[in-house]
TrEMBL record:
This is Chaperone protein HtpG. ATP binds at E31, N35, D76, M81, S96, G97, T167, R321. InterPro entries: HATPase_C_sf, Heat_shock_protein_90_CS, HSP90_C, Hsp90_fam, Hsp90_N, Ribosomal_Su5_D2-typ_SF. Keywords: ATP-binding, Chaperone, Cytoplasm, Nucleotide-binding, Stress response. GO terms for molecular function: ATP binding; ATP hydrolysis activity; ATP-dependent protein folding chaperone; unfolded protein binding. It comes from the Bacteria. Gene3D superfamilies: 3.30.230.80, 3.40.50.11260, Heat shock protein 90, C-terminal domain (1.20.120.790), Histidine kinase-like ATPase, C-terminal domain (3.30.565.10).
Amino acid sequence: MQKGSIRVQTENIFPIIKKFLYSDHDIFLRELISNAVDATQKLKTLSSIGEAKGELGELKIEVKLDIDNKTITISDRGLGMTADEVEKYINQVAFSGAEEFVNKYKGQNENNIIGKFGLGFYSAFMVSDKVEIFTKSFRDGAKPVRWECDGSPEYMLEETEKEQRGTDIVLHINEESKEFLDELRIESVLKRFCRFLPVPIFFIGKEIEEDPQPINNTQPAWVRKPSELTAEDYQNFYKELYPYNETPLFWIHLNVDYPFNLTGILYFPKIKQNYEIQKDKIQLYANQVFVTDEVKDIVPEFLMLLQGVIDSPDIPLNVSRSYLQGDPNVKKINNHITKKVADKLDEIFRNERTSFEEKWDSLGLFVKYGMMTDDKFLEKANKFHLFQSADGSKFYTLEEYRLAAETLQKNKEGKLVILYTTDPVQQDAYIKAAEAKGYIVVKLDTLIDASFINQMEPKWNDVHFNRVDSDITDNLIDKQENTEMVLNEDDQTKLKSLFSITPPGLQVTVELKGLSPEAPPVLATRPEFMRRMKDMAAMSGPMGSFYANMPDEVTLTVNGNHPIYQQVLATADAGRQEKMTRNLADLALLSQGLLKGTELTSFISRSVDLLKN
């Protein structure tokens, strides 16, 4: 057996760190400024416990761009380093000074420290031919030192002159990275990664401003206590995040310190139309440092339509802080966010129902999506999910709908039949016929309602959904036996043969029934199951199931008791008789939006001919 230590050669590892440590080269600015923030926060901690003496002065970070000399300098007034500390923290790759500090001063604001891996400094070499460090420690009598390295394992360390405590890191930008010598480019990177860091950051370009302002908000709303904030504060912060968006519906302030640390504000945006829905609008921060806007592992899928900020030092990140690593905390945070959102929606529903109903057009998407994908959310959402009546005048929870409708709308199997419309205008005649029988029709017309209906039926196992035009009104709850018809058997046979039509793209079934004389002469209905399958297939795009390419199934119910058929059957002109019955069928198809193209043109032409005669 042989044992030993794995040897790491700096000649090999340095180019790897330099070239492949981070996927985006602009990360270097975030990493170096994060280190400057850590140096400042550490000094504050040491001052608070008496280890750092004297006045702290103005604690700030400066980013200076010198286009002529092709340098970027990041300066802080933090705790600085001695020569020994430079040897320890800079010359040892992957030795984390932040981790050491947290372990030494546990319980002393360690959550404000950003660094974890001891590698961020080396991101400077992704964009630099040479890096210099000028640093002076806060310790009494400490001598300032200068460190220099050109990206090889060789470095130089010497005493230097520096009056102020803190560290200046000077990057000599290489030819491949000259894009970072542009003021607008640096400003955009700073605004992306550093806009909410807790130490003021000043950017100094060509123009020296008389009264420069920090580029960051050091006290964003999510780090403050909810009790300190007004509605205006929350709305102003939303405008800061999304300057061109409308005022949000409402927000949820996350503030958890056990069993994990989590802060943030999630906003429910207004959603006017389905195609405006956008994901990836939630930003993830770790101790106020921007990490990513891809938060699908942390935020439940159904809440990806929300907007806002989540900040947690307990979310496990990889070295580049760009991707989440699997960890139990991620699942815990995900579950907590789900619970927090459900509780907030329930609270608004109970305390401000009118306001809740007014926002249902937008809220319904979140609620329905959550009910489909998360059973724990479904359990709570059953209390505040709403059905809106077809005319929009009234809202019902499932239990309220059941109480109002089950007397007339319970079928032979004992299931509550929920009658719905997907288009109140087009399906108006069917809605009116159903309402005339005392039925309650609700509106389910959003992008996700087809999926919602299919998933809720097995979850609400005592409920069945029927679209209001899926059958004649008498059959919407249970199939009814035929009533008597005034036509004799020969007339019935002849009438049914006259309706033997085969419009292209449609699979037509004709049935003859004895309905009320006041009912329409022909009703076109689309059987619930096949229409649902086609709707679902259409949503899945070009690669949808074979249902998408199947012809629409339509049932033409001919009302043999309608008086117009006495006239049709009495007509001696066979051609006119055929035109009359075809027009009656086309009128029914037109009510379902199934008469198009040449068929619609033929209908118009035929109608004109009938009027002439």
